[in-house]
Amino acid sequence: MADKKTGIDQALIRDLANILNETDLTEIEIEQEDLRIRVSRAGTPQYVSAPVPAAAPIAVAASSAAPEAAARTSKNALTAPMVGTAYLSPAPGSRPFVEVGATVKEGQTVLIIEAMKTMNQIPAPRSGKVVEILVEDGAPVEYGEALVVIE
What is the mean pLDDT of the chain? Predict the structure, then answer.
């Protein structure tokens, strides 16, 4: 439910606050398109002018480093539905769920994201061919981050 005046999803903010409480983090920040939300615990600074400009160049540098990859993957990419750690195989040392060049069916498990000590199977949103795997095994992932390109 988005606030009619600001367009901010208050349920999302509550979910982020719950993540802070459950994980003992002091701050969490997400960015989607032109919306950026930062939630921090009491006792941390409510505003800091120096880090805000420092974060913007990092995001610009990352997006300008591969503009054609971002454009190509945006519509065909499977994105992370949550923050967590991505695993490409069901167990350490076992074969990965998918490899580049593999054909997947809609609903087939492509990878796992561990979030709050829970292993969440991430299914393919559509059938197609895996043309690119954008994350490494055991890498942290952000909400909305492109993980796998399926064409």
Answer: 76
